[in-house]
């Protein structure tokens, strides 16, 4: 699927589609350069999930978590920019986050394609790769 | 009171020994600081370093202070915010020392450490930043600015913090690092960007001051970072994304920019970032009429920011306080030791040693 997004409201429609299956954990693997809108997109996911807190950049501490309006669902926001090896993903406990009906948003997921593919073995998991591309100042291309 | 303080919140293994507000020793190990291609610290490398070097760094700090561990009254350690696996190493060691030598344990919030860093004194009792404890007048505003934080607090007493606002996305130091990467400066970029900005025209590009009219005391730096990216793309005349993502990382974005363009970008970005900071500080000062403005965190090493703050505080007759030596601005265990004094005064010791756990996203409350 390809979308051209020029209005922030359109994010909600896409997010609804991505998070439709919520019997298990939802992994959203984000791919896109600085300025492509990864943070904005994650903020919209948080809004969709009824997160009350402000979603701020996870770059510094790599992983932040947020309570959603659904008690069985935690939003995990990860930034893999500073990581280089698979074992580091083990150390930060990525695999353990992928459970229940959690939503796990992973920025710079393209650094670890194999590892993220290996998460497919987890029961009822739904992995969605989202490419964000800068088209111009007001437009982003979404490929899912 | 003699305190041995440990900070392993990020990539420095830092240990300090203090007696009251006097720093008797401050030893940091960051020789093995390893940065990857993408900029930033490799967390597991930091953890390995902390584990390996904590013991020798502690031994060296004790040696410098001419004290033995038996002389110490309390062990203080950073328990957040920071990298989970890095924090863990320091906490583990602090618990071990606390149990083995039967010392009181104090868990310190790293950001409270930054706020109190200006009070550090040298061995003879002379303040490094020209500020003594009797100079502290409440109410005051405290601003923390670093690679991970941009937060503003109102204080009416020691150790009482009311959060007034903060960044809603990237920290100001993070914006410096990310923009630095865009214009090809590597990591960390803060100091290099500031140096480049001196040669640039701060009005060359009209970057936004995000949240200027938001009415609150929050900041946003993500949009500014993106505005710099747009400007770079315009300069490069690249309006489409490169097809091969692997080839196109932001550190390549500076390609085809002239030296003048790069320094103009640096100067214009810095002006926008600092003016954003100042705008909300101005607003907060007029709203809260504080007696002092206290700054802590790595970004206060920036001279352009210091100049702007001096002016602001001159005009508003607010006393400005910030850590002067570079090592007190960046992460260090001395500030943890200083803050620990105030934890101790408020009897904020860890009652059950085993209960102390790292909190990577710890906030001040």
UniProtKB/TrEMBL annotation, chain A:
SUPFAM superfamilies: P-loop containing nucleoside triphosphate hydrolases (SSF52540)
Family matches, as InterPro entries: P-loop_NTPase, T6A_TsaE
GO cellular component terms listed in the entry, alphabetical order: cytoplasm
Keywords for this protein: ATP-binding, Cytoplasm, Magnesium, Metal-binding, Nucleotide-binding, Transferase, tRNA processing
Any Gene Ontology biological process: tRNA threonylcarbamoyladenosine modification
Family that this chain belongs to: Belongs to the TsaE family.
PANTHER family attached to this UniProt entry: TRNA THREONYLCARBAMOYLADENOSINE BIOSYNTHESIS PROTEIN TSAE
Protein name in UniProt: tRNA threonylcarbamoyladenosine biosynthesis protein TsaE
Organism: candidate division WWE3 bacterium CG_4_9_14_0_2_um_filter_35_11
Lineage, top ranks: Bacteria, Katanobacteria
TrEMBL record, chain B:
GO molecular function: iron ion binding; tRNA N(6)-L-threonylcarbamoyladenine synthase activity
E.C. code: 2.3.1.234
Domain of life, source organism: Bacteria
Record-listed Fe cation binding positions: 110, 114, 331
GO cellular component: cytoplasm
Cellular location(s): Cytoplasm
Catalysed conversion reaction: L-threonylcarbamoyladenylate + adenosine(37) in tRNA = N(6)-L-threonylcarbamoyladenosine(37) in tRNA + AMP + H(+)
Entry's cofactor comment: Binds 1 Fe(2+) ion per subunit.
Keywords: Acyltransferase, Cytoplasm, Iron, Metal-binding, Transferase, tRNA processing
InterPro entries recorded: ATPase_NBD (IPR043129), Gcp-like_dom (IPR000905), KAE1/TsaD (IPR017861), TsaD (IPR022450)
Domain Gcp-like: 23-337
The keyword Transferase appears for this protein: yes
Biological role stated in the UniProt entry: Required for the formation of a threonylcarbamoyl group on adenosine at position 37 (t(6)A37) in tRNAs that read codons beginning with adenine. Is involved in the transfer of the threonylcarbamoyl moiety of threonylcarbamoyl-AMP (TC-AMP) to the N6 group of A37, together with TsaE and TsaB. TsaD likely plays a direct catalytic role in this reaction.
Residues reported in the UniProt entry to bind substrate: 144-148, 177, 190, 194, 302
GO terms (BP aspect): tRNA threonylcarbamoyladenosine modification
Family: Belongs to the KAE1 / TsaD family.
Location (main, coarse): cytoplasm
Organism expressing this protein natively: candidate division WWE3 bacterium CG_4_9_14_0_2_um_filter_35_11
Cofactors (names): Fe(2+)
Protein name: tRNA N6-adenosine threonylcarbamoyltransferase
């Amino acid at each position: 699927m390809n979308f051209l997004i020029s209005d922030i409201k359109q994010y909600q429609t896409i997010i609804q589609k991505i998070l439709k299956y919520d019997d298990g954990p939802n992994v959203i693997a984000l791919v896109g350069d600085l300025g492509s809108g990864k943070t904005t997109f994650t903020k919209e996911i948080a809004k969709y999930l009824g997160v009350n807190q402000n979603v701020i950049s996870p770059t510094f501490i790599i992983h932040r978590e947020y309570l959603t309006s659904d008690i069985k669902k935690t939003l995990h926001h990860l930034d893999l920019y500073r990581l280089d090896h698979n074992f580091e993903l083990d150390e930060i406990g990525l695999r353990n986050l992928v459970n229940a009906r959690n939503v796990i948003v992973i920025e710079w997921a393209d650094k670890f394609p194999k590892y993220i593919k290996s998460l497919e073995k987890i029961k009822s998991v739904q992995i969605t790769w989202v490419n964000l591309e800068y088209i111009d100042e007001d437009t982003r291309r979404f490929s899912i | 009171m003699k305190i041995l303080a440990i900070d392993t919140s990020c990539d420095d293994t830092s240990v300090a020994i203090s007696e009251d507000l006097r720093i008797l020793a401050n030893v940091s190990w960051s020789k093995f600081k390893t940065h990857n291609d993408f900029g930033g610290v490799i967390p597991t490398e930091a953890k390995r370093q902390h584990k390996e070097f904590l013991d020798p760094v502690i031994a060296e700090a004790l040696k410098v202070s001419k004290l033995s561990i038996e002389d110490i009254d309390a062990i203080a350690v950073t328990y957040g915010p920071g990298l989970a696996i890095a924090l863990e190493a320091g906490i583990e060691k602090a618990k071990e020392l606390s149990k083995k030598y039967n010392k009181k344990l104090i868990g310190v919030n790293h950001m409270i450490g930054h706020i109190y860093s200006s009070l550090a004194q040298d061995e003879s009792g002379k303040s490094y930043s020209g500020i003594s404890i009797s100079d502290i007048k409440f109410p005051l505003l405290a601003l923390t600015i670093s690679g991970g934080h941009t937060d503003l607090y109102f204080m009416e007493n020691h150790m009482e913090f009311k959060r007034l606002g903060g960044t809603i996305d990237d920290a100001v130091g993070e914006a410096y690092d990310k923009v630095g990467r865009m214009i090809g400066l590597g990591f960390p970029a803060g100091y290099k960007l500031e140096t480049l900005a001196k040669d640039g025209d701060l009005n060359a590009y009209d970057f936004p001051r995000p949240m200027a009219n938001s009415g609150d005391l929050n900041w946003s730096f993500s949009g500014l970072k993106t505005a710099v990216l747009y400007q770079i793309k315009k300069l490069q005349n690249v309006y489409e994304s490169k097809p091969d993502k692997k080839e196109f990382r932001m550190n390549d974005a500076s390609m085809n920019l002239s030296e003048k363009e790069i320094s103009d970008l640096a100067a214009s970005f810095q002006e926008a970032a600092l003016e954003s900071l100042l705008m909300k500080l101005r607003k907060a000062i007029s709203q809260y009429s504080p007696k002092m403005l206290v700054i802590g965190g790595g970004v206060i090493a920036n001279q352009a920011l210091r100049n702007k703050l001096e002016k602001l505080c001159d005009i508003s007759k607010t006393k400005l306080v910030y850590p002067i030596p570079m090592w007190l601005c960046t992460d260090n265990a001395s500030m943890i030791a200083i803050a620990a004094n105030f934890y101790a005064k408020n009897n904020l010791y860890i009652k059950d040693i085993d209960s102390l756990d790292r909190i990577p996203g710890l906030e001040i409350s």
